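lol forgot to send this yesterday, sorry. struct tokens for the thing we talked abt
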């Protein structure tokens, strides 16, 4: 079996989820890590080598965090440790409709130093050699401008070597000084993107896209050859340079918690594409997994038994 190598760049944090006003459940999550976990979950055993690229602390929570990655089949080969660093934290509440609100405490998160001057050149070289490199708008928001420029060089090298770059413009307004800053950072990544996986709600905030068609047209103009615009309960739109097609969401899902629905969709979609499935089949797989995820509390479903990192 050919093993596809995937590197996902981002941050994992401590998740504290309200069970009641005075009770919390502890977990570990983050948009790119969630996608890594669902990518590994969706692939046939041994088909993917999924590695999470980040920086953690050396505190007990960071150690437990890495154990969580491994349980979900995600490796830490390129996850560096900052001595004295501490894991970032967010708290999450869900309303009666399953919609969520977040409070983040991440100003000293070690992952903010991704692609900084202390990152060894060997890490850049290793990332560029992967079959697929994935990141999000939140990844960009925690990085400095110089680090984003260095990242863009790695993405360009990934494409030059024949690898794919997938990008979800996942947007947290608090992470940016303005929508224009987020849009400019995204443009530098989209120049090297093979597969764009935006949510229309996010791209409306950042780029002013009024519809899925407008989002597709903008991404086509940016040169992106494969586009999936997520529309929540309305499903998604898939497109290439010539055609556009709507794919419905799974109907009549009981919504418990919408956290990481888009991340799950992305993981299942990319796993299907790496396995050689067509865009529509991949989008349907993404919709099925997203429906399962929003029917359960928290960002991550329990790990499947026997999933370990690597082939």
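and heres what i got for the seq, position by position
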């Amino acid at each position: 079996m050919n093993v596809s190598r995937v590197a996902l760049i981002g941050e994992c944090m401590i998740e504290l989820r309200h069970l009641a006003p005075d009770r919390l459940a502890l977990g570990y999550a983050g948009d790119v890590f969630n996608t890594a976990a669902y990518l590994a979950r969706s692939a046939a055993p041994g088909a993917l080598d999924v590695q999470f690229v980040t920086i953690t602390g050396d505190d007990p929570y960071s150690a437990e965090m890495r154990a969580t990655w491994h349980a979900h089949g995600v490796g830490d080969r390129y996850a560096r440790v900052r001595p004295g660093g501490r894991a970032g934290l967010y708290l999450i509440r869900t309303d009666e409709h399953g919609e969520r609100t977040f409070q983040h405490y991440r100003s000293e998160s070690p992952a903010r130093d991704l692609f900084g001057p202390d990152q060894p050149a060997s890490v850049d070289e290793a990332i560029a050699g992967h079959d697929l490199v994935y990141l999000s708008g939140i990844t960009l928001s925690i990085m400095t401008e110089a680090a984003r420029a260095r990242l863009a060089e790695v993405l360009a090298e990934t494409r030059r070597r024949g690898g794919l770059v997938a990008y979800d413009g996942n947007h947290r307004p608090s992470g940016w000084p303005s929508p224009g800053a987020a849009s400019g950072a995204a443009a530098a990544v989209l120049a090297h993107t093979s597969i764009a996986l935006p949510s229309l709600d996010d791209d409306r905030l950042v780029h002013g896209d009024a519809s899925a068609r407008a989002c597709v047209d903008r991404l086509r103009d940016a040169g992106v050859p494969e586009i999936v615009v997520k529309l929540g309960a309305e499903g998604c739109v898939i497109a290439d340079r010539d055609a556009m097609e709507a794919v419905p969401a799974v109907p009549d899902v009981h919504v418990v918690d919408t956290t990481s629905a888009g991340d799950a969709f992305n993981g299942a979609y990319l796993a299907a594409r790496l396995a050689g499935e067509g865009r529509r089949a991949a989008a349907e797989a993404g919709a099925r997994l997203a429906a399962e995820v929003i029917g359960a509390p928290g960002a991550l479903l329990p790990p499947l038994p026997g999933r370990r990192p690597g082939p």
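The chain has ten helices and 14 strands. anyway ping me if u want another try
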